[in-house]
Hints:
- This protein is an alpha/beta fold.
- Helix content is 31%, strand content 26%.
- The chain has 6 helices and 8 strands, in the order βββαββαααβαβαβ.
- The protein has helices spanning 42-49, 88-93, 108-120, 136-150, 166-181, 193-199, and strands at 2-13, 16-27, 31-36, 57-62, 71-74, 154-158, 185-189, 202-206.
- Strand 6 (154-158), helix 5 and strand 7 form a beta-alpha-beta unit.
- Helix 3 (108-120) crosses helix 4.
Amino acid sequence: MSLFECQNLCLGYSSTLIQENLNFQVEKGDYVFILGENGSGKSTLLKTILGFLKPYDGKIRYDKEWRKNEIGYLPQTSEIQKTFPATVWEIVLSGCQADLGIIPFYKKNHFAKAEENLRKLEIFDYKNRSFKELSGGQQQRVLFARALCAAKSVLVLDEPAKGFDSSATKKMYEISEDLHKQGITIITISHDLQAAQKYATKTLVLQKKQM
């Protein structure tokens, strides 16, 4: 079952065209790696798929199974407000907000999910610490845990291993693969060819457009 299909998709901003005529589809349960050099439009593609940016041209056709409130998203670390005045617990728990519905109160299952993901990322002991006091790698773990709380059907990761050491990177891939085995669709930007060969069901390679 196709979650979405890109048809002659063109990416760009202002008068600058980054990519053109992209045609591909992502099926439910895929593990997609998006590879390519810097400036090839990988992050722009993700933001366009998620609806944060409009296509320069072309279309994205979404299936009814594509539900925005079931997507966990981890953006690039450079786009994160690293001095955000909140605790680790508050940030991770906020990943459950889309599940609150008309009653804006967290329930026991939300608290349990937040605790589970903090423990998975081995940062439960940091739960009462201020996010802005953490190191870059620790902040990345917190934001990954938040994305896991939101990911009911799809997990979208923009260079998730950036800022991670080798141990944290291994843990991140183990968690992602476990979710994939449970039926979660994974879409990730990466420069890790070895990981793509090991985990990907589909690989999309973007070439930098010659100006």
